[in-house]
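Appendix C reproduces, verbatim, an entry submitted by the partner laboratory led by Prof. M.T., so that reviewers can inspect both the input and the predicted structure.
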Amino acid sequence: MFAKRVLTAAILLPVFAGALLFLPQIAWALFLLPGLATASVEWADLALMGPRARYAYGALVSLSAPAVLYLVPLSHFEAWPYRLSVCFWVLIAPLWLSRHWSVRNTFVRGLVGWIVLVPMWLALVQLQTTPWTLLLILSIVWVADTAAYAVGRCWGHRKLAPTISPGKSWEGVLGAVAAIGLYYGVLWLAAPAGSRLVDARYGLLVFVAVLVLSIVGDLFESLMKRQVGVKDSGQLLPGHGGVLDRIDGLTSTLPFAALVLYYM
């Protein structure tokens, strides 16, 4: 499984990074739409939608995202999707996880799916204007996820949330913390003076916040899957499961990062 995971990442990462760095923004937005559509259909399964409704939901989410980006006058409420997302991940998702809410209402789950997926897509599109900053944010999540997976597989004994995701451990979390701390130290030494996200005044806080939010996003998707009795959201990506399984940490972190950069 680990070999499949690494091989899949080795194939997809250069394609993703090349598109991020070299495509114009409109082409980049179109490049991301199939992933959003696939993730939306996977979420529709978690929202207990029927075969026809799941594809209708996928189409609705995929059309609403560019509509928000290009048609809604954001100038009056700049970054409102990010504020909505951050409120959900900071205020609602932790309560949902701690109380193990089991919401069976399809409309509510569908609405939550929109909040989870669309602000993330918007952040991916808008932050491409500063591609290396976006890659830095993405890399924080990837480093944390990889370290947590590797350390948890080797030394994980104390379960982080056994009733939500039995495979996650406190040792894995500590491995992610150590990896992020080391990664931040390397970037702090290597980055040019004035780099905003590595600035000693608040850079480490941003890194820690991204790490914590990525764990919340991961656990939230795990709870959604457990409540409908599935292990993976799909089988599209060998070693990773579905698209949702690969982007769960990004759904909760990218809107936060976009909001931070907006205020900065």
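Residues 52 and 58 are 10 Å apart (CA to CA). Additional entries are available on request from the coordinating office.
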